[in-house]
Amino acid sequence: MALYKSYSKNEKGRQYFRTGWIMLLLTILAIVTLFPIYYMIMSSFGAPVESGASSYSLLVKNPTLESYQFFFDYSKYSFRWIVNSFLVAGVSTLANVIFATAAGYAFSKLRFKGNKLLFSLLLLAMMIPYQVTQVPLYILIVNVLRMDNTYAALIAPGLVTAYNVFLAKQFIGSLPTEIMEAAKMEGCSQPALLIRIVMPLSKTVMAVMAINTFMNNWNTFFWPLLVTKTENMQTIQVGLKNFSFANTTYFAPMMAGATVSALPMFILFFALQKYFLEGVTVGAVKG
User: Fold this and answer.
1) I need a surface site. Which of 8, 82, 103, 287 has the fewest CB within 10 A?
2) Residue 197 carries which DSSP code?
3) Sign, Cα dihedral of 136, 209, 271, 23
4) What does the pLDDT look like over 22-51, one tens digit per residue?
């Protein structure tokens, strides 16, 4: 009995020791992850004239909102950059939710010639790196269609993504087919079936697609940089580069703009964090 008690104490001690190390490791990872965000916010309260080298401090000695005012006064298009980002991200999100859900329903529940072949091509498209497609896409948009420096050029390439179609297909494939068959027997057409049956049952995956698409389009930098020529068409991410020059950088105003651009993402995350967690596993639903 004494031997058992001694073993139990040792086992509990080892368990507490392992738990302590895990907590310490997670705390270090959390600090490393949050430090860039903290430094960005702290730097945004510095004076606009400060250079980056003089702003390397974990605490701001004389916090001020002048850099935020400088950011909005620096260019007459500062506010429009934010509006452009909302427009591009919003339209792309709405289009992806509608088109990807419709395509996912077609791939998972409809039987037509070439179904498996088209879905295989879709999977192959997901394996192609994003950077590889930029040159042919740029040639198509700018040289062929002459759509550069327009909202169409910013939005069209992201109207629907292969990844979102894949997510929708996997989720909708798990829905009971009997419900849809019963609706068809009642005379429900395919569009009505999609709108009245499939979409209400697919709110989870639609929310995940909306969140991921909005975040990706809001934070994207490379493509808007390629297709915009004037300040009035730039998004917030591209607009921030206007604060950096060859000889100097308006460091604090740039951090103020970065904080403003990150604010919608913070709100989105804390408001819909349960959907972020669901987004980790929704693609693993067996179709």
Assistant:
1) 8
2) I
3) negative
4) 899 999 999 998 898 888 888 888 887 755
**Residue ranges per domain, the chain?**
2-66, 77-284
Identity at 3, one-letter amino acid code? L
Phi/psi region, residue 51 (left: phi>0; alpha: psi -120 to 50; beta: rest), is beta
| Residue where the block lists tokens 């909202």 | 151
Q: Where are the alpha helices (DSSP H) in 45-110?
A: 66-74, 78-109
- Decide if pLDDT at 20 tops 90: no
Please give the structure tokens belonging to residue 281: 């596993």
What is the DSSP track for 228-244? --SGGG--HHHHGGGGB
Give me the mean pLDDT over the 232-239 stretch: 92
Mean per-residue pLDDT, 66-86: 90
* Cβ atoms within 10 Å of 253's Cβ, excluding its own: 29
Residue 240 tokens, joined: 């921030």
